[in-house]
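Record 1 of the preview.
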Amino acid sequence: MKQRLREWLRRYLPAELLSAVATLVAAGLVMRATRSGARTALAATWAGNVAYFGLLLALDVRQTQQARRRRGYAYTWRTLGQNLRALAVEFGPAEVLDSLVIRPDLLYYLPRWLGHFAVGILLAKLLADVTFYIPAILSYKLSKKRLRRFENEP
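->
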């Protein structure tokens, strides 16, 4: 179990940290500009998603390029499609519910209920992450076994 936890932390923690910063920055900027809780919640959700998935995709692409290069294969558009498919399988089910319902609602309501904007945003992100990671980690195990074998294909 320790080994799995380390693997998950290595995979997800850098993206989580970047996502937290993007979420806070977007929430602050949009709230200041619009004074709209709904717009703030949506902007924070999507900024966090872009940062999170952008970093994971970049890391996956780099890892796949290195693995294929060691085997003498080029990284192709087809390989990029495989990287994207693996991410979709890993996060698709978790992301739909998270981005369309859970995270925006928490980002909208928690700052109001707590009476503190930044604490509410961070707590909302953390609570949404719990509901996100349960299906995401299960899907990661599936994608790891079946969809992340790029170095053996020409």
